Amino acid sequence: MPTWMFFLRYLAALSACTLAAGCASTISVQLQPSPQAPVCDASAQALVLWAPRWRPDQKDVPAREDAAAAGLNNFLARSGCFAHAELRRVPALTPAAVQAELGRSGGAVGLLVGIEVRELGPVLQLMSSAALVDGGTEVLLSISVYSTQSAAELRQFTVNWQDGGPGVVKGVASLPADMRAALQAGLQPGAAAR
Known about the structure:
alpha/beta, 34% helix, Rossmann fold
């Protein structure tokens, strides 16, 4: 039997097996360093600054930034993380930018949080498993909490959130919800309420 014919039969059998078993998607979250105390404080007036820091070869930057903004807005509006939160996009979370935004707040900030979006998008690896496709979506965030007096960074950690697995192929439609889920896992509004 020619190699290409064997390969086609293998693909057909694998497809049937995958369809019969379904594609299992698994969510994984890694906080570094871990564990982290909740950032959320349901009684706080928060200023949340966010900035993208994409890799040089990042594709579809405007669409990813729109998805990040939608996920952030949705999380802040519905999670109960803070009593009130003002979200501001900044070009980068530099000390000067954080200090300037704190100065613009007029001193009415109880909590100052920075969220740097490093990755937000679908991932796909071919031939990485028996299912031939290993994919899903990934969100990588760097979270900082700053002093509300000096804007000095008090703590910083990363959140790496992934949803996927063998046989899973996802597009960009879920990115705002994925962003919200990563924020939920990293900022921990439920744990702060206990």
